[in-house]
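Have a think about this chain, tokens included, and walk me through the fold.
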Amino acid sequence: MLSVIIPVYNEEKNIVPLCQDLLTVLESITLPFEVILIDDGSMDHSQKRLQEVAAWNPSFKIIRFRRNFGQTAAIMAGIEHSQGSIIIPMDSDRQNDPKDIPRLLEKLNEGYDVVSGWRKERKDNSLVRTLPSRIANRLISKISGVVLHDYGCTIKAYRRSVIHGVKLYGEMHRFIPIYAHWMGASVTELEVSHHAREFGLSKYGLNRIVKVILDLIVVRFLDRYFVKPIYLFGSFGLLALLLSFLSGGYALYLKFIENTSLISTPLPLASVMAFMIGIMAILLGLVAEMLVRTYFESQGRSAYLVQTTTNFSHPDDTSP
């Protein structure tokens, strides 16, 4: 089954024409489908339009949030309530084209696990939207190691198996290809159509860049240090201790060799502060280690993922 997931926030004029176009495309393919529309606390008549759409066809399913939780939360809710083995999120503002869905499916059938849309010809304000997006995409690609031209494009295609169990927070829906890559998924991208917004106003501004950068720091931390946080905190702590000893040693050198009074230089204070910071960082790393172990053990999760096994008699044996 194919699950199309669409977050909705104040898009009353776009919902009906979007669903009409979507239904035409989905009925032309051979896969059974469902369309999950998540009302993310809309304050206009979006919910009324959604109920009208749900009355057309039972394949249109509606989730309504009590308030606005954001696009990432809406996509997460859609994934958790979906049943399809293939998941395609897309925007509700009609800037994504439903006609790209068959093309995404064809690309998946070439053997990929994730196909990310690339809005090569964007129809947005070049200064406010396009330029910051290009900078952010290059930064994300460089830091994550997963090179994509357009992380911000919502329309993508995923095999459920590669995003099963992924939890998303903040603005992290754009980083799903990175999570999938960590799980060993093959990721590619496909040029998709992008249309100018006809109704309503964009919900995104330049302030989103700050959120993306902070979320990227979290993603990088989870990639490198989630299982062993002591490596990050401990390294910082040891560096602080080294600076403490160096500054303290230099202060003593000035005192006994250059006859410089300790109160005439900030080095003793810097040495004490660096020492305290170093000890606190190491202790924080130890606390983080205990939290990681508690997390894995309480959730029954493992710190590794097995793809296949051979000649094992347990039920998980996936050998031919």
